[in-house]
Write a structure and sequence with these properties.
binds D-ribose, globular, 6 helices, 5 strands, about 15% strand
Length: about 150
């Protein structure tokens, strides 16, 4: 059973509920870090809380949602050890796992995607990390955290 953390700002509350239903119907354990109303909040606060919870351990990956997926992914990628990929179709869903071994994926509640978000999540979950040369590239990417 996969354990997944999810959080959104006010721009993706209904998308979050839809994703949670999908994940639970696929026997995933879901930690919902909010928000659950459309009252305006600041997405960096939500991203930081979710990433801090994720780094405590025990989660397979996380999902961050805002209006576009952009703000959440930028904020998450500021946090040590986080690799948050903005996924927008089945190909990027697959590559986010296979090549980047992303530990978070981000979507926008106000974005019109060509495929359902749950199909992208399903693709990400069913893809394995390719390893090999991608291990080296990810190690170099994460080393940047100590270079600046
Ligand atoms: C909030 O209005 C909006 O800026 C936020 O949800 C997100 O899209 C930011 O990147």
């Amino acid at each position: 059973m996969k354990k997944i953390i999810i959080a959104s700002d006010h721009g993706a509350v209904s998308l979050k509920q839809d994703i949670i239903s999908f994940l639970k119907s696929n026997n995933c354990e879901v930690k919902d870090m909010g928000v659950n109303t459309e009252d305006s909040v600041d997405y960096p606060d939500i991203a930081l809380a979710a990433c801090n919870e994720f780094t405590k351990g025990g989660y397979d990956f996380g999902i961050l949602l805002c209006g576009t997926g952009i703000g959440m992914s930028i904020a998450a990628n500021k946090i040590r050890s986080i690799r948050c990929a903005q996924v927008y179709d089945l190909f990027t869903a697959e590559m986010a796992k296979a090549h980047n071994n992303a530990n978070f994926i981000a979507f926008g509640g106000r974005v019109k995607y060509s495929v359902p978000v749950n199909a992208m999540i399903d693709k990400f979950m069913k893809t394995n990390f390719s390893g090999d040369r991608h291990e080296r590239r990810i190690a170099k990417m994460m080393d940047i955290e100590d270079l600046c």
